[in-house]
Specification:
The N and C termini lie far apart (about 90 Å). This protein is an alpha/beta fold. It is elongated and about 90 Å long. The strands form three sheets. The protein has a four-stranded mixed β-sheet, covered by helices on one side. It has a two-stranded parallel ribbon with strand order 1-6. The protein has a two-stranded antiparallel ribbon with strand order 7-8.
Length: about 130
C-alpha cells in the first residue's frame, strides 16, 4: 500500500512540473476553437446558411441554425444579410459587395394611439404598421 501512495504522489508531482511553466517562460494564449476568425472569400460560390426570419448569414455548424437552415450563395447572402457574430462566416471583400438596393430601414409606426402615445409596432420608416395602415 505504501509503494502505491509514493508512486501516485510522484506521478502527480511530475504532472504538475510538466504543466506549470518555469518563471520567465512565455506561455502563448490559446485561441478558442469555438470562435474561428473571420475569413474573406474571393469567390461568391461559398455556401452559407440563413434562417427563415433572421437578418444574418451563418456557417454550417452555427447554433443559430437550430430551427431553420436555408442554403444560399455567399454573394447573394452578403447583399441581403450581415455576417453572424457567433460563428463568423466568410465575408466578401469590399470590392465584391454590391449594396445597390439596401433593405428599407425599419422604424416605429407613425400613428398616434388613443392614449396619445406613438404606436410601438415596427413599420418602414415614415409609414404605418398593419393595424394603422389606411
Amino acid at each position: 500500500m505504501f509503494p502505491q501512495r509514493v508512486c501516485s504522489a510522484v506521478v502527480g508531482m511530475l504532472l504538475v512540473l510538466c504543466l506549470v511553466p518555469a518563471p520567465g517562460w512565455v506561455v502563448p494564449l490559446a485561441v478558442a476553437a469555438d470562435a474561428p476568425s473571420i475569413a474573406t472569400a474571393d469567390d461568391g460560390d461559398t455556401t452559407v446558411y440563413v434562417t427563415r426570419t433572421g437578418k444574418k448569414y451563418h456557417r454550417d455548424g452555427c447554433r443559430s441554425l437550430s430551427r431553420s437552415r436555408i442554403p444560399m450563395k455567399l454573394s447573394e447572402a452578403a447583399r441581403r444579410f450581415g455576417p453572424c457574430a457567433v460563428c463568423r462566416p466568410p465575408v466578401l471583400s469590399s470590392a465584391d459587395t454590391d449594396r445597390s438596393d439596401p433593405p428599407p430601414s425599419s422604424a416605429r409606426c407613425a400613428a398616434t394611439t388613443r392614449k396619445g402615445t406613438q404606436c410601438s409596432r415596427r413599420a418602414t420608416k415614415g409609414a404605418y404598421c398593419w393595424q394603422h395602415a389606411r
